[in-house]
Amino acid sequence: MFRFCTPESLKRFEASIEKSTGHKTADLRGFNVCETRRRVEERTGKPVTTKSRFPTIGRGNVLGDCVIDRARVDQLLDEVLSQ
């Protein structure tokens, strides 16, 4: 196991997430990214910003304001390819 990935460090990480979002990590796992962003912005009154070290994730299904599911990506791809 990596030195930084211990049960204690995971607990501290989850506690930090819970503190910053105002929700338990178990609850957050049930929210989609857009819902989590909306709830945090309502709680803090500040816009949520995200940074990525990679240009795309998977097939590029991450949009500026929302994440779409795989079925919608496949549908859009089929529409483009059928033209």
Features:
elongated, 2 domains, 83 residues, 0% strand
Characterization of the model:
- The chain is mostly helical and 83 residues long.
- It has 2 domains: 1-49, no CATH class; 51-83, no CATH class.
- The chain has 4 helices and no strands.
- The termini are far apart.
- The mean pLDDT is 77.
Q: What is the β-strand count?
A: 0
Q: Into which percent range does the helicity of residues fall?
A: 40-55%
- The average pLDDT value, as a whole number, equals 77
Number of helical stretches of at least 4 residues = 4
* N-to-C series of helices and strands: HHHH
Gap between N and C termini: 50 Å
Number of domains: 2
Q: What's the Cα radius of gyration?
A: 17 Å
Q: The biggest beta sheet, please?
A: none
Give the helix/strand class: mainly alpha
Question: Given the C-alpha coordinates, what overall shape results?
Answer: elongated
Report strand %. Answer: under 5%
Unreliable spans are none
Write a concise synopsis of the structure shown:
The protein has 2 domains: about 1-50, no CATH class; about 50-83, no CATH class.
How do the helices and strands line up, and which of them pair or pack?
Layout: H1 7-21, H2 25-28, H3 33-44, H4 70-81
